Amino acid sequence: MPPLGMTLVDAHNVVSNNQITNYAQLTRSYSHGVYVGGVGALVHHNFIFNAPHQGIAASGNNHVFSLNILMNLCYGTIDAGAFYIGRSWVNRGMVLSENNFVDIFIQEPVADVSTMVSGIYLDDQQSGVTAVGNRMLNVDNCFLVGGGRDNTIVGNECVNSSNYMIYFDNRGMAWQSALCTPPNGMLVEQLIAVNFTNPPYSTAYPRIVTTLTDSPCVPVGNVFANNVYSNVAYGFISQDNGTIASWNSTSYNNTQI
To answer: How far apart, in Å, are the Cα atoms of 109 and each of 70, 103, 114?
Structure first.
C-alpha cells in the first residue's frame, strides 16, 4: 500500500489568461513567472515575457501546460530553461502542448558562454514528460533531455537554433550515476517513498514499476518522432540513431525543412 494519504487526485488548479511580464528584477534567478506543484494543474493561455531566468517551473504530477507564449526569457543566466522540471522519476504525467517559445537565448555577459539555455529543459534524469505540438523560434537549444526515461517529444517545431533541436544525454551512466544507483540514490529513494510498485503510481504509470529492474541509469523509453526543424546549427539531436537505440530509446521520422 502507498503511504497513508498519498493519492494522485487532480487538484484542478488553473492558471489562465494572464500576462506575466518584466519580473525577477530584484532576485534574478529562480523567481519564476509560474510555478506549480501537487497534482493536476492546468496552465494555459498565458503570456510570460521578459525575464532573465525561467518562465515556468514545475514539480508534482499530471499537469498540463498548453497554448502559452514564453518570450524573451533566460537572457541573463546559463544552464536554464524557459520551462524547467528536473531530478525525478516519480513526477510524471506532465504534458506540454502547443506552446510557443520565442527568443530564448543568452543576451547578457555570463560566466560561461559555452553553456546553453533551452526552451524545454528536462533536467537530471527527469522522466515521464510528453511534449507535443510546441513551436520554438530563436531558441538557443530547443529541448534538453538530461538522461531521463519515458519522455515523449513528438510533433514539435524548432526554427533558428544555435545548438541542437534536442540535446539528449546519458548522464546517469556517467557523471550522475550516484542519483540512480540502488539502494541509496536520490531517485531510487523517491520511488521507494511512494511505494512505486503499488497503486496509485503503478496503475497511473505502468512503466514506473520496472524502473529498478530495467537498467535504472540508462535513459530508456524515450521517443523522438515526427518533429521538424530548420536552421538548427548542430542538427536534430546530439546522439546518432545507433546510440539512441542502444539506450532502448527511439528516434524516427524527424525532418529538416
So the answer is: 22, 17, 12
